[in-house]
């Protein structure tokens, strides 16, 4: 039996492990009657590393909200319960969505979500470019200018910045054919020019570029790229103290993370509290997965009027050991904080939407206008649907401060007020209140739900 469990857990490519999974197909139940305010999804599967993240990926790809989750995967089985709603807080009623969830959670392969009218190019019809390097004002504009000069059309892109570093996954096609670019010389030239851009910060020469043909799970790649970038920079990049914002000012942590020992069961306990937001569970699980930790038990609660999320995990490293050193503990805390902060709003940035007919060079023009008006892009999501560009940018001024009205008016004049929409501006008072809250009772509040998790362990161990 020990040999059976070892093979199932450790080697996805092992033929015996594959046979075991075929003999024990997943069991997925989607129930709209078990809970008053959410659809309950129960998943039982043979355990393998990363299976929890795969299940959550299916749900977040459909833009569903996970309000509660109960996780257990001791022994050879992954047994989890998710309470989910749609974006409006309602139970799932769309038959296509329910069938897609069932099919994905019962499948070993990744199935893309329903397109909903969006542009989902075949995987061999675009080229994917991955970039990491030092962040600075105007960086995305320079990247777009390089690609435009090489007759590359950007059809989709995701850009994140955090702690003065930037990462991007950009999907491009040939301007003339609309297909993936296979010319090795042209791709090498693009990689050379982009590498120079990403390394052109005077204080740091770290930067990386990669080129491939086909699809990638963009958000998972961005998390992994930013983690590798931090680790590649040594201890200073992983965090040598309080992180800094764009103008060098100290930035409050978006999450409160405590890591403790559970010696009775040989687990490490991770407790995380922060303001809830979309895809928070996905982001924290990406960090744990990329750091090679396995979640054996867990409780997630993001339900209630407080809008605060509580996450509690009982983990071990893939080698079977809990966290054993202070340096490893510190690294785990900082990487979880970073995973939360990459998409957390600090209440200062402005959300801008650009909606217009798509055309070659459009993104280069938009980012040039932002740069000329001293706007710094914090995050960006670039998509194309039915021939229309649907781009979202989170911006601040070059010092990390809120954007003033005159600047927005100037940008609107240049891009067209009918094209530019301002979705959110100004400081979120609730974020400020949370950030300024003292740390006096942090540990006590973090531990509030831990006894429930301990009961969960005893019931499944």
UniProtKB/TrEMBL annotation:
Keywords: Repeat
UniProt-listed Pfam families: ACT
Domain ACT residues, every copy: 128-213, 351-427
SUPFAM superfamilies: ACT-like
CDD domains linked: ACT_ACR_3
Keyword Cell membrane included in the entry's annotation: no
Alphabetical list of InterPro entries matching this protein: ACR1-12, ACT-like_dom_sf, ACT_dom
Superkingdom of the source species: Eukaryota
An example Gene Ontology molecular-function term: amino acid binding
Entry function: Binds amino acids.
Name recorded for this polypeptide: ACT domain-containing protein ACR
């Amino acid at each position: 039996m020990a040999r059976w469990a070892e093979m199932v857990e450790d080697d996805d490519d092992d033929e015996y492990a594959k046979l075991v999974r075929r003999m024990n197909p997943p069991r997925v139940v989607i129930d709209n009657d078990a809970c008053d305010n959410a659809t309950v999804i129960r998943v039982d599967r043979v355990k393998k590393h990363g299976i929890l993240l795969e299940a959550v990926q299916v749900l977040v790809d459909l833009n569903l909200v996970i309000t509660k989750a109960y996780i257990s995967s001791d022994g050879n089985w992954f047994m989890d319960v998710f309470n989910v709603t749609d974006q409006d807080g309602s139970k799932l009623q769309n038959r296509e969505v329910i069938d897609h969830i069932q099919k994905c959670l019962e499948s070993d392969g990744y199935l893309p979500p329903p397109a909903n009218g969006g542009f989902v190019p075949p995987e061999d019809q675009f080229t994917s470019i991955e970039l990491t390097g030092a962040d600075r004002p105007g960086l995305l504009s320079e990247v777009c200018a390089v690609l435009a000069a090489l007759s590359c059309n950007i059809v989709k892109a995701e850009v994140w910045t955090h702690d003065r570093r930037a990462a991007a996954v950009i999907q491009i096609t040939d301007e003339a054919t609309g297909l993936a670019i296979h010319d090795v010389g042209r791709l090498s030239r693009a990689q050379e020019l982009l590498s120079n851009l990403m390394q052109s910060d005077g204080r740091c020469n770290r930067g990386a570029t990669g080129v491939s043909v086909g699809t990638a799970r963009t958000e998972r790649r961005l998390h992994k790229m930013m983690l590798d970038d931090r680790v590649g920079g040594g201890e200073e990049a992983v965090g040598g103290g309080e992180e800094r914002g764009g103008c060098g000012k100290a930035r409050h942590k978006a999450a409160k993370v405590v890591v403790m020992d559970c010696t009775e069961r040989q687990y490490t306990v991770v407790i995380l509290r922060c303001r809830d937001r979309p895809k928070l569970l996905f982001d924290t699980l990406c960090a744990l997965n990329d750091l090679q930790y396995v979640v054996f038990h867990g409780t997630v609660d993001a339900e209630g009027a407080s809008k605060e999320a509580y996450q509690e995990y009982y983990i071990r490293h893939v080698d079977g050991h809990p966290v054993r050193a202070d340096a490893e503990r510190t690294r785990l805390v900082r990487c979880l904080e970073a995973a939360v902060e990459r998409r957390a709003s600090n209440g200062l940035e402005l959300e801008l939407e650009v909606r217009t007919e798509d055309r070659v060079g459009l993104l280069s023009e938009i980012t040039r206008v932002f740069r000329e008006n001293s706007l710094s892009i914090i995050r960006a999501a670039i998509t194309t649907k039915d021939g229309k560009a649907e781009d979202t940018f989170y911006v601040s001024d070059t010092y990390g401060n809120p954007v003033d009205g005159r600047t927005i008016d100037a940008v609107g004049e240049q891009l067209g007020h009918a094209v530019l929409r301002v979705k959110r501006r100004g400081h979120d008072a609730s974020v400020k209140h949370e950030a300024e809250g003292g740390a006096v009772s942090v540990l006590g509040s973090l531990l509030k739900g831990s006894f429930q998790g301990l009961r969960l362990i005893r019931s499944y161990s």
